[in-house]
Design a protein that fits this description.
Structural class: alpha+beta
Largest sheet: 6 strands, mixed
Mean pLDDT: 85
Helix content: 55-70%
Number of helices: 16
Low-confidence stretches: 423-427
Strand order of the largest sheet: 1-8-9-4-6-2
Strand content: 5-15%
Number of strands: 9
Radius of gyration: 29 Å
Distance between the termini: 74 Å
Length: 432
Amino acid sequence: MSWALLFRAREYLKGSLWVYPLAGAILGPLLAVLTRQADTSVTVPQAWQYAPSTASTVLTTIVGAAVGLTGFVVTVTVLAIQMATGTFSARYMRIWYRDRLLKAVLAVLAGTLTFSFSLLRQVGSTQVPNIGVSVAGGLLVLSLVLFLLFFDRFIHRLRPVAVADLVGQMALRVITTVTQAAQIDTASAEIAAGDPVLMVTSGRAGSIQAINVRGLVTWASRHNQLIAMQAAVGDFVTTGQHLIAVFGDGAAPVKTDRLQAMIALGAERTVEQDPAFAIRIMADIAVKALSAAINDPTTAVQALDHLGNVLRLLGATPLHGPLTFRDTEGTPRLLMPGRTWTDYLTLAVTEIREYGCSSIQVVRRLRAILEDLQESVRPEHRPAVDTEIAKLDATIAAGFAGSVDIDQARARDRQGIGGPAATEISSPAASN
C-alpha cells in the first residue's frame, strides 16, 4: 500500500463516524460471551443475582435506553454542527466530526446495545447471566457519563473564543513540527536551473493534503536526482497538472507511480502539514463575525487574540520561501514551495482589516497586534509588519474620515476597546 493511500486511510478513519461505533457493536457480543463464561466459573453473591423476569426487564430497558440515547447524541451533534458552521466557518466542521469523545460515546452506546441484546438470548427459566446484567448496567452508566462529558464539551465549543483557541493550538503544533523538519535556504532554487529530466503529473484532481518528505528525499538520493515540487501543500491541482520536476545529470526512471504515491490528494485541505489552513479558519471566523448579517466585532477581536499568538510564533521562525530538504550527506534532494512571513501575515490580517475597517475595536486590536509583532519578530520580518501598519493607517484614514472617533481609531488597545490606556508604567523607585 502506498504512502498516500495510507495517509488518506488514516484521514478517513479520523473523520469517520461509523468505524468506531461498528467496532463497539462487534465487541458487545464478544463481551457477552466472556461474561457467560464468567457466570459458569464464578459464584455470584446473592445481592448480584437476578430473577429471570427481572433480568429480562432490566436488559430490555437498557436496550431501549441505548437506542434512545444514541438518537439524542446524533441529534445534538447535527444541531451543534449546523450552528458552528453557520456562525464560525464551514472549514471548522472537519475538526468537529473528528472529535474523539463523540466517537467514544457512539462506540460505547453501540456496544451497550449489542451486549444487552446478546444477553437477552441467554436468559432462561433456570439460567440468568447475573454478571452480564450487572455489566450492562455499568455500561449504561458509563454511556450516561460520557454523554454528559460530550454535551458539556460541545456546548462550550459553541463559543467563538473556544473555537479560535482550539484551531490556534492546532496551528501551533503544526508550525512547530513543520518548521523543525525543514531547512530553509533561499539560494537553493538555483540548483534546479535547466531542463528537468522527468516531469510527474497529477493523476487526479484534489487538494494537496500532505507530502511524504522523507520518501521523496530517499528516492532522490537513491537515484542521485533533485526533486522540485511544482505545487505546495494546500494547493488544489487539476488532473494532468505538473506536480514534480526531477533534475539531474543522468536519466531518471520513466515510471512515475512511485512519486505520485508520495503526494496525498483529497477533496479539501487539512491542517496536518498546512499551518496556513488553521490561520485561514481563524480568519474566516473573524470575517464572518464582521459580516452585516452577524455584526459581532467582539468575536473578531477574540479571533485576533489567537491569531496574534500564532503570528508571534511564526515571526520567530526564519521564513524566507523555498524549503530545502537534504539527505544524510547534506546534499539538497528536495525543494518545496514555502510561505514567507509576508504570506502568513497577509493571510491573517488583510481580510479582517478590509471587513473591519468601520469597527473601531477591530482596528485598535489590529494595531496592538502589529505593534507587538514589531518588537517580537525577527529583524528581517519587521518591514512586512511596517507595511501592514501603513495599510492600517490608510484604512483608518479612509474609513473614519470626518469622524469624531478618528483619534480613538488610531490608538492601540489589546482588548479592542475599553482596555487600559497604553501608557508606560514606571517603577515605584522611578516615581520617587
